[in-house]
Every structure is written in structure tokens, then in C-alpha cells.
Specification:
The chain is mainly alpha-helical. It has 45 helices and 13 strands. A hairpin with a 2-residue loop joins strand 12 (590-593) and strand 13. The longest helix has 27 residues, at 164-190.
Length: 988
């Protein structure tokens, strides 16, 4: 067999059949049912449904009475079988359209069904369509169509229908479904969906343990997910099972796959197209920015760089070519590199990659983020992109192997940022631009780009302004380009301003530039030369535009929303938008997306210099940043309140003078928080002056979802560290205590419990000194949870009891509910199951009374744990599924993953072992890169127990060994449990 599904033979009714209304529909891929429009028809007794099914599956062919009796009753029919058959046929005629059930030659046939009237025929059509799409190389379409076909199955085919014919058809239809499913899973792996396929394949191999094709697909999915040991364990489990059950060895294909995995065959690492299909055309990125139409001069550099790139593409066996252009900002590095790259495109037919590395800004692009973007551009599925920088770089080089691709790395910070992004294979080349000379970039061809020559500068000025105007005032034009320091960016801005003002002469512009007070003294000194180039554009702004330009440049962050800009400027949104759009027209600001704006990094530096020089009094700058901080704090507090109604934190935050946005719907509030995350955290880091610090810390606290969701946990922790240091420097115990609460929470969510314990304990101490009750409550609650994880149950109970009392004294009912649910887990760990259920139910009821959906999910999570241990497994699963739905809706990936883990524990207790493995696999997928190793170890333990129960002992051993290694490295008590599991397996 070729591994593709064989479609059951089905024929269409003859064209001479009576046409029935299209509204009549039947299903056999589940219970045998019939509909007339939306009305469900009564198909009668099981034997009557058996007759209907037998006729439907013949699709228009006549079945004799003898054939139908044999189909319904087999070799021993009742004495009145023929009479019963006729009775069933008569009853069916009454419920079906006239002419549908026809009598012929003593037999019966179903005729005149409309297109799409029978689900099995629809499935056949979809399977054929999917096969055509796959043959044409369109795997995405083929997968989509196959999923539609598989969705037609509604449980067991012909469910509840008796008779030998129905038994045989059930087996045939189920086998066909499995073949379709295998084909779709095969295409999933072809498209790089390895991690997602593992959980489904784990469940399928448990349900069909002797089906070798499913085992083969599981091995491949595990291997491509970086889980080689588990893949080999699947083979060992399969060989043992086949020997025990059937007395045979695995088929050759499975044995060959095992050998290829053992040999780390590189061809297995990437999807391979079946030989019968046309070769998949690799994705060919074409990311180069447009080359400027008025590119001028630089002929020597163009020739030099073009020769280097040509040598990389033409010489067989040569190493990759790297050219690094260095020079001050605005000297034209990017323009030259893009121009040369476009000229070289024919030499790199497999594509061109481009990225702005933002090396001149405060937060340069992370290499792992860039690699993720590059891998996607090269056709790699998100699920196939690994987490670490080293793995991404290795995969990137592998994907580029054998291709001729040009990579343009623009605006690099240093060689360390660039190295992981270099292709590393012959036939490829990289162009790098940076302000610094990359002497430590091994093997690079270094080019120092200076300002233009006077002739080149004048030629560029002429192309933009126009030959006629320059020819009339050539000397003035020379004065202009000289005043620009022959810097291309400055020339371009000056020329563009002149071109846009027809009433100006070149001499007018030259006079303006001749006034040295209009230029910065640092014109010839490195990056400061860039400021002088923007002096021209800035000098032409209206007062309101100039103020906006100065103040907007004060804020960090990659871009800025219209609402944030309005806060900085203290203007209505409509007026703010008019100002910002006018700045876009002057090229001093860019429109990043509708309603969002950004500065080029060099323009931002210049804008700040203008603010320091021109914004008088200086308190105006401070007031602008204060309004931005107020805006973010007020809005984040509103988002927090929507997510957590009744929570007292919002009553204890610093007061704000500038209002924030107001959201009526929680999803829009969530959208705002996650969209603004980077800018919001940048604002916190900027706001560490004594008069702003407390608001900055409160903003971080109000945005705690950014840490708990796992979406921005690293940036959140880094920001918490910065404000904690600022608070300590200012000796502000209140601010430091609150900053420590956010840090402790981040460490807790990342599984760093010792650090979390230290930070929370210090938060309690400082909060007591400052007389600030809220951090005491939160930190005590957190200390109790951490003690639970560390099996210090008496200590944990003491902390949580104190937290409950503190929350009650403060009138903070959500906090009290949280502490009650956490105390429930202490009771659970110490064998007090009944009181654990009661406490968790009490906390959940409190959340529900307040309409607290998100935190109510935390309550249901705790309640699910208690119910599991009390043996109320169905009720536990219900509560956990309710929690999971809320976590998914709230984008709380960490908690959704942990809830799946707890559902796996319920399934283990209920001996639903295959479902337990599926849920544990899904939890592992969601928790990739978040939650810490301790949580991963717990999930691996559950997965190992589930796999052991469904006969996949080799893979179970691998999971348990990995969990043991994690717990031993952490010094966690769970190591004893896992060690005992492994020892018990060794005895068996």
C-alpha cells in the first residue's frame, strides 16, 4: 500500500431516476438518520433502520428480498422474515418522499436522491477533492478538505443498527475513516505541524495499538519535535506489542524509520514530499525594500560590493560572502545596501531576506525574534520553530542549505547581534549595515562609507529639486549641500523641503543653512551630525507641530498609539491626529499602522535633543511624560477592574490626573493591554523619578496579566527589576514592596520558587514598615502557595491564614477568595479532603457572587483538584473544563496548560488513559517556554503514567526519566515519586 486512503466503492444513482426534493438528507456515518429540510424523520425500529442503511449504501442499485433478509438477519432469519421486510419497507415509504423507495423484481432500491443527500457520498467527493489537491501540491487545501470529510463522522457508523451487513459496513467505514485520518496526519507533518500532531497521534495509537502506520507517524512527529528518545521508545513499544499479540516483527518501513532516527538522518528533520507527488516549490521570500528611484553616485562602492556578492553566487565550494557597511547615521548605508541588493537579485534566485535590527535604538531586535521571522518567511510552520536561539540558528542554516539567498541585515548594533543571522552556507551572502565597524565579524568584507563627494551630493540634490532650479543657482546649491555636510539624509530632507515649496529659491534655503545658530555644533561629530540634518525639517514646522515633534520623541517604545500621543500632548484625539498626520507628511514621523505612529530611531534622538533645548520650561517635558504615565495607569487599572470585578487593588493604586481609555467589553480591554504591552512596560522603565516612581510601580502591578499569561513575562520581569532598583535607590519602602510583589509573582509563574519566596518575604517586611496593607496581603498569599509547592505545609497554612485575615480586614473579597482556594490545596496535601473541597467551593462561590469570571476560573481550578482527590471525578472534570474555557478566552496560556495537566490527572484517576495522554501532550505544547521546569516535570510525570497504562512503556520510560532529571536538578521532593514509579516499572 502507498499509505493513502482507499475510497470505498460508491456509485451515483442512474440519471433516469426520479428527482427527489433536495431537502431530503440521510446519514450513515453515525446513527442512521433522515431529515426533510430541518425536520428529523422517525426512521423506526433498529431493523427498519438496518433496511434503510442497506439500501442507502447501495446508492440506487436494487437489492433482492433474499439479499436484504440475509443483510438483516444472516444465516438464521425468522420464519416471517419476508413479511417483516415488506412491513419495514411500507413504513419507510410513508416517511420518505414519493418514489424514493422503489419496488423492483421483488426487491427494493432507494432512488432519486439529490446531490449531497447522503453523507457517505459527500465524504467520498471530499476525499477525491483532497487527493487532487494533494497531487497538485496544495497540501493546505487538501488538509482542509479532508478535515471537512472527517467531520461528517458522528461517532460509530451505523450506530445501533443490527445485522451482519451493518457489522461489515461498520468495519469498512471505520477503516476508511482511519485511512483518511492517516492521510491528513501525514500532510500535517508535511506542513510542519509536528508538535500539534503528537497529542492526537498519542490518543490514536492508544485506541488502535496494532496500527503500524499511526505508530510510524507518531515516531516521526516526536523526532521532528526534538523528542528523539521518545520516538525510539515508540518503536520499542511497537515491536514488543506486535511480538506479544501477533508474533510478528514491525513492517520494513517502521524498522527503516527507526534506523534513520538512530542515525540522526538529516532528511528526517524536514518534511519530505512523497515521490508520487510533484516537488513542493520552496517559499521564495522577496523582502527587500524598494530602491530609491533617485539613487546617485557611490559607483565605486556599488562595483566593489557587487563583485563580492557575485563571487558568492558563482564560485563553487566558496564560503558565504559577508559585506559589512559602516558609517554615521544618515550617510546612506541602507540606501546603498538596498540598491546593491536589488542589482544582485538575479544571482540569488531563491530569495532575499531583509530586517531592520534597530541597533541604534534603546532596544535592538533580539536575534531569536529575527530568526523566527526569517524561518516563517522561508516557509517554516510556527509549530516547527524551536524556542532557543541556538536551535533557531541551526534550523535557519539548515533551511538555507542548498539555496542561493541574499540576507540584508540593516541597522545592526554589533557583531554579536549579527552572527546568529548569517546563513553559513556557500551560495548565500549577507549585507550588513551598522554605525560601528565590525572588526570582530570574522571573514567579513568591511566597507567604511563616508559622506558623498561634492559632485555626488550636488547630483542627488539636483535629482530631487529639479535641473532647472539648480542650474539657475548652482553656487547656492553647492552652499546648501556643503552646509548639509554632504550627508545624504540631510541633503534629501533639505531638497525635499525645497521641492515642496515652489515659491522658495535655492538661495533662500542656502541663507537659512548659512545661519550656524540653526545647526548644531556637532555637525561633523559622529551621530550628532544626524541632528543637524533634521534641523532643516524641524525649522519649517509650525509651533504646534514642533511641540508635538519634541514631546512625542520623549517616549520609549517601538511605536505609539493615537490615544497615548493625545495624552502626551494634552490634546483631543482629533487634533492630535491632525498634527501627527502633518508630521508624517514632513517625513519626520512614520505611520506604522492605522492609529499608530513611530519615529525613525535617529529622528527620535534628534526630537529629544530638541525637547531638551527648546521645550521651556523643562517642567513641560516632565508634565508630558507624567500624562503618559497617568494614561497608561488609568487605562490598565480599568482593564484590571473589568477582568477582576470587586478586586480592591484598583482602590489602592496611586491617583491619576489624566484619564485613560474606558472599555465596555473585556475582550477589547484585553486587546488593548496586549497590544500596548511593550510601550506600557517602556513607560514604566522611563518613570523612575521619585515623583513618578509609585505610579510606575502601580502600573506594573495593574498590568500583572502580562506576566501571568506568559506572553510578556521576560520583559515584565526585567521591568520589575528596574523599578525595584529605583525604589531601593530612592529609599521608598512602599514602592519597593509593591515592586517586589510583581517580581515574586513573575518568579512564581516561571517556577523559580526560592527566588519568589525571598522576594515575597521581603515585600511583607517592607510593606509593614511602609504601613501598606495590600502588598502584605498579596505577598502572604504568595508565600503560602510557594510553601505548598515546596511541601512546607505548616508554614504555608500559617501564611494563608494570615492572608485571609488581612484580606478580610481590608474588605478585599477577591483576595480572600484567592487565599481560601490556596488554603484548600494545603488541606488537600495534608489529607483533609472534605475541608479542602469546602474551602475551594467557598472561594469559588465568592468569585461567582462578584461576577469574577477570570479569577472564578482559578477557583474552579482549585475546586477541580479537591474534587479529584475526593473521588468525584466527573464533577472535577466539569469544573476544570469550565476553568479551561475561561483561561483560553482570557489568553492565559499558562493556566490553560496547567488546567489540561489537571484534566490529565482526572483521566488517570478515572483510568481514561488515552485521554490522559492526550491532555498531557496538549499541556506540554501550551507550556513550551513558559511556566518553568518544575511544571514541565509534573506534566511529564502524568504523561509517563498515561503512556505506561496504554502499553507505550518505552516512551513512558523516557518521559519519567526526563521528569526525574528536572526534579533532581531543582532539588524538588517530586523526585521521590518519580523515582518510585521508575523502580516499580523496573520490577515489572
Amino acid at each position: 500500500m502507498d499509505g493513502r486512503p482507499r475510497v470505498p466503492e460508491q456509485r451515483r444513482p442512474g440519471s433516469a431516476a426520479i428527482a427527489a426534493p433536495a431537502a431530503l438528507r440521510f446519514s450513515v456515518l453515525g446513527p442512521v438518520r433522515a431529515w426533510l429540510g430541518e425536520e428529523t424523520l422517525n426512521t423506526g425500529s433498529p431493523q427498519q433502520r438496518a433496511l434503510l442503511a442497506a439500501l442507502l449504501l447501495r446508492e440506487g442499485r436494487t437489492a433482492t428480498a433474499a439479499e436484504l433478509i440475509d443483510a438483516l438477519w444472516g444465516a438464521e432469519p425468522p420464519s416471517q422474515a419476508l413479511a417483516a421486510l415488506r412491513t419495514y419497507a411500507s413504513r419507510l415509504r410513508k416517511i420518505l418522499d414519493p418514489g424514493v423507495l422503489a419496488s423492483e423484481s421483488g426487491g427494493y432500491a432507494v432512488r432519486g436522491l439529490g446531490e449531497g443527500a447522503l453523507d457517505v457520498a459527500v465524504a467520498q467527493d471530499l476525499a477525491t477533492e483532497a487527493e487532487k489537491a494533494r497531487s497538485a501540491g496544495d497540501l493546505r487545501q487538501a488538509r482542509e478538505v479532508l478535515n471537512r470529510a472527517l467531520a461528517l463522522w458522528d461517532g460509530e457508523p451505523l450506530a445501533g443498527v443490527p445485522g451482519p451487513y451493518a457489522d461489515a459496513q461498520r468495519v469498512r467505514l471505520e477503516e476508511w475513516r482511519l485511512q483518511l485520518l492517516e492521510s491528513r496526519l501525514d500532510m500535517d507533518l508535511e506542513q510542519g505541524c509536528h508538535a500539534e500532531a503528537v497529542s492526537e497521534l498519542t490518543a490514536l495509537t492508544a485506541a488502535h495499538p496494532l496500527r503500524e502506520r499511526l505508530r510510524e507517524l507518531l515516531m516521526l512527529a516526536l523526532y521532528r519535535s526534538g523528542r528523539q528518545a521518545e520516538a525510539l521508545a515508540v518503536y520499542a513499544d511497537t515491536r514488543r506489542l506486535l511480538a506479544e499479540e501477533l508474533g510478528v516483527d514491525p513492517r520494513p518501513g517502521l524498522r527503516e524509520l527507526q534506523q534513520r532516527i538512530l542515525q540522526a538522518d538529516e532528511a528526517l528533520a524536514e518534511p519530505s514530499t512523497p515521490a508520487t507527488e510533484p516537488a513542493v516549490v520552496p517559499v521564495r521570500p522577496a523582502q527587500l525594500p524598494a530602491s530609491v528611484p533617485d539613487f546617485t553616485g557611490r559607483s565605486a562602492f556599488v562595483s566593489e560590493l557587487s563583485e563580492v556578492l557575485a563571487s558568492a553566487s558563482e564560485a563553487e565550494g566558496s564560503v558565504m560572502a559577508v559585506s559589512a557597511l559602516a558609517g554615521i547615521g544618515g550617510v546612506g548605508k541602507t540606501t546603498l545596501a538596498v540598491h546593491v541588493a536589488h542589482r544582485a537579485r538575479p544571482a540569488f534566485p531563491d530569495g532575499q531576506l531583509y530586517v531592520d535590527l534597530q541597533g541604534a535604538g534603546p532596544r535592538p531586535a533580539e536575534p531569536e525574534t529575527v530568526l523566527g521571522s526569517f524561518l516563517r518567511a522561508l516557509g517554516t510552520a510556527d509549530s516547527a520553530i524551536p524556542d532557543s536561539l541556538e536551535e533557531r540558528a541551526a534550523l535557519y542554516r539548515s533551511v538555507l542549505d542548498g539555496r542561493r539567498v541574499l540576507v540584508l541585515l540593516d541597522n545592526a548594533k554589533d557583531a554579536a547581534q549579527v552572527r546568529p543571522l548569517l546563513p553559513g552556507t556557500e551560495g548565500c551572502a549577507a549585507l550588513v549595515t551598522s554605525r560601528v565597524r565590525m572588526l570582530d565579524l570574522a571573514g567579513a568584507h568591511l566597507v567604511d562609507l563616508d559622506v558623498m563627494s561634492p559632485d555626488e551630493a550636488l547630483a542627488l540634490f539636483t535629482k530631487i529639486v529639479g535641473e532647472e532650479r539648480v542650474a539657475a543657482e548652482r553656487e547656492a546649491a553647492l552652499d546648501v549641500v556643503a552646509a548639509c555636510g554632504f550627508l545624504p539624509l540631510a541633503i534629501r530632507i533639505a531638497a525635499s523641503r525645497l521641492a515642496a515649496r515652489r515659491t522658495w529659491t535655492v538661495s533662500v534655503l542656502a541663507v537659512k543653512l548659512a545661519d550656524e545658530r540653526r545647526r548644531l555644533d556637532e555637525l561633523q561629530a559622529g551621530d550628532l551630525a544626524v541632528k543637524a540634518t533634521f534641523e532643516l525639517g524641524y525649522g519649517q514646522l509650525e509651533p504646534a507641530q514642533a511641540r508635538a515633534f519634541r514631546l512625542l520623541g520623549l517616549a520609549d517604545g517601538p511605536d505609539m498609539s493615537l490615544a497615548a500621543a493625545a495624552a502626551i500632548l494634552d490634546l483631543p484625539p482629533e487634533d492630535t491626529e491632525d498634527l501627527l498626520e502633518s508630521l508624517v507628511d514632513t517625513s519626520l514621523l512614520e505611520s506604522a499602522a492605522p492609529g499608530r505612529y513611530r519615529f525613525h530611531d535617529l529622528v527620535r534622538l534628534y526630537a529629544r535633543a530638541c525637547a531638551e533645548r527648546d521645550e521651556q520650561p523643562p517642567s513641560e517635558r516632565e508634565a508630558a511624560m507624567s500624562r503618559l504615565l497617568d494614561f497608561y495607569l488609568a487605562t490598565a487599572a480599568g482593564v484590571y477592574a473589568i477582568e477582576r470585578p470587586g478586586d480592591r487593588l484598583v482602590d489602592h493604586l496611586e491617583a491619576t490626573e489624566y484619564a485613560g481609555l474606558v472599555f465596555e467589553e473585556r475582550h477589547r480591554a484585553q486587546d488593548w493591554l496586549y497590544c500596548e504591552a511593550i510601550c506600557l512596560l517602556a513607560c514604566v522603565r522611563q518613570s523612575t523619578r521619585p515623583d513618578q516612581l509609585r505610579r510606575a510601580v502601580d502600573l506594573l502591578w495593574a498590568a500583572i496579566d502580562l506576566a501571568e499569561s506568559g506572553a510578556n513575562s521576560k520583559e515584565y520581569e526585567a521591568t520589575g527589576t528596574a523599578v525595584r532598583a529605583a525604589a531601593r535607590s530612592c529609599r521608598d519602602e512602599r514602592a519597593e514592596a509593591r515592586a517586589l510583589v510583581t517580581l515574586a509573582n513573575g518568579h512564581h509563574m516561571s517556577g523559580r520558587f526560592e527566588l519568589a519566596d525571598q522576594e515575597a518575604a521581603e515585600a511583607v517586611r517592607l510593606a509593614e514598615v511602609a504601613g501598606d496593607p495590600l502588598p502584605q496581603c498579596w505577598a502572604s498569599n504568595m508565600l503560602g502557595v510557594i510553601a505548598l509547592y515546596q511541601s512546607r505545609y505548616d508554614v504555608g497554612e500559617s501564611h494563608l491564614t494570615r492572608a485571609i485575615e488581612s484580606f478580610r480586614s481590608a474588605g478585599d473579597r477577591p483576595g480572600e477568595a484567592s487565599a481560601l482556594c490556596n488554603l484548600s490545596r494545603i488541606h488537600l496535601a495534608t489529607g483533609r479532603t472534605a475541608s479542602a473541597v469546602s474551602l475551594a467551593q467557598q472561594g469559588t462561590d465568592m468569585y461567582d457572587d462578584m461576577g469574577h469570571a477570570f479569577k472564578g476560573a482559578n477557583g474552579r481550578y482549585a475546586l477541580g483538584l479537591a474534587l479529584t482527590q475526593s473521588g468525584q471525578l466527573d464533577l472535577a472534570a466539569e469544573r476544570l473544563e469550565e476553568a479551561r474555557a475561561v483561561f483560553r478566552d482570557s489568553r492565559q496560556r499558562l493556566w490553560e496548560g496547567m488546567t489540561l495537566f489537571r484534566l490529565a490527572e482526572v483521566d488517570l484517576a478515572a483510568r481514561r488513559l488515552a485521554q490522559a495522554a492526550t491532555n498531557a501532550e496538549s499541556a506540554l505544547t501550551l507550556l513550551r517556554g513558559i511556566g518553568g521546569e518544575w511544571r514541565r516535570g509534573n506534566v511529564l510525570t502524568a504523561l509517563g503514567r498515561a503512556l505506561s497504562g496504554i502499553g507505550q512503556s518505552g516512551r513512558a520510560q523516557v518521559c519519567l526519566q526526563e521528569a526525574l532529571s528536572i526534579f533532581e536538578a531543582l532539588g524538588a521532593p517530586e523526585a521521590d515519586e518519580v523515582r518510585a514509579l521508575l523502580e516499580a516499572r523496573a520490577v515489572l
